[in-house]
Amino acid sequence: MFPGRQDLQSCVFVHSVTLSSLTSGVEVAHLCRNSGQCLDAGNTHYCRCQAGYTGSYCQEQVDECSPNPCQNGAACTDYLGGYSCECVPGYHGVNCSKEINECQSQPCQNGGTCIDLINTYKCSCPRGTQGVHCEINLDDCNPSSDPLTNEPKCFNNGRCVDRIGGYRCVCPAGYVGERCEGDVNECLSDPCDPIGSYNCIQLTNSYRCECSTGYTGTDARPAAPNTVATLRRCTHGDACVVLRFSRAAL
Length: 250
Prior knowledge:
Layout: H1 11-14, E1 37-41, E2 44-48, E3 53-54, E4 60-61, E5 75-79, E6 82-86, E7 91-92, E8 98-99, E9 113-117, E10 120-124, E11 129-130, E12 136-137, E13 159-163, E14 166-170, E15 175-176, E16 182-183, E17 197-203, E18 206-211, E19 227-231, E20 242-246
Antiparallel strand pairs: 1-2, 3-4, 5-6, 7-8, 9-10, 11-12, 13-14, 15-16, 17-18, 19-20
């Protein structure tokens, strides 16, 4: 019998004896394994383990990879007191939980839309462009770009200017419209004298006034050089008559 046998479970008491008097002969100072700390708890004791160890006497190393904290197919490597994740391509973060956004670098050109995929991306190209990064701008002014019609983009000798995903027509004087298909109506501005002309005839990039009797000129405004045109203001429904007098007679 050992004095104080009832207290052999106390860390304070058993520090001065050996476990050979109890069970296996291990010194009580080494009762807790792997640098664990022995602490009293009433009539018994327990071991406070260092990080990475577990068990009644800290005899087992904790497997931080069980269960696996790494996500998205990442490989877990266990080490004392921690772990590390080896992410598969396309993921990052401590646990490989975050997907890498390959579109963040804005790889698509000419207004292309980037679609983020796992470890890659895809560019959705606008009309008139092609290539992996939409880097090729097709010539929309080429008639062959529209195989259904195969006709010039701009009519009436309009000049075609290629743009990304389209074109623009620079029209010659006298023509308007998206494709220079419309002839400008110069008569809409009423260029002819309302008294000296009875009709405006539209021409290509021009017009012609049909003059009333006694009027001449492009706009039917001036009278004939050797005559004087006198207009009498008409009232009460009287007819207005143009009188022509020779300057010699005056």
